[in-house]
Amino acid sequence: MFEWKPEFAVGMPHIDAQHRELFRLAEALYVAMSAGQGKAALEGTLDRLVKYTEEHFAAEERLMRLNDYTFQAAHKAEHRALTRKVVDFQTEFNHGRATLAVPVLQFLRSWLEGHIKQSDMKLAGFIRQRTAA
Predict the structure, then answer these.
(1) From CA 34, how far away is CA 52, in angstroms rounded?
(2) Is residue 3 included in any domain, yes or no?
C-alpha cells in the first residue's frame, strides 16, 4: 500500500531519505493491521509513525525558515492538518475504535503522495533555485 517510487524524489537526499522512512513506517503499520497483530504491536508502530512525522516536519520547516520560503504558512498548515488527522486516529485507536484503520491509511497514502509531489517538490525547487543564484 505504501510503496516509495522514484517520482517522489525531490532531489534533496536528506529529505528523500526522510520521505522513504515515512513510507516504510506507514507500510509497517499497514502490514501490522493487515496481519491482525495485537494492539500493543500496532500501538508501537503508530507511535513511531507519529513521532517520525513530527521530526520530519520540523526538519522541513527549519529548511523553510532558513531559506525564507515564500509559501511557509501554507506548507506548515498542510503539516498541521496531517498531524491532527493522525493524532485523531491514534486517539481513536487507543480508545478501541480501530475500525477507522483502512480509511485513515488510505488518507495517509493519498496525503503523503500528494504532499510530496506538490508541496515538497515546490519547496525543493525553491531551495535549489535560491542556492543556485
Answers:
(1) 22
(2) no
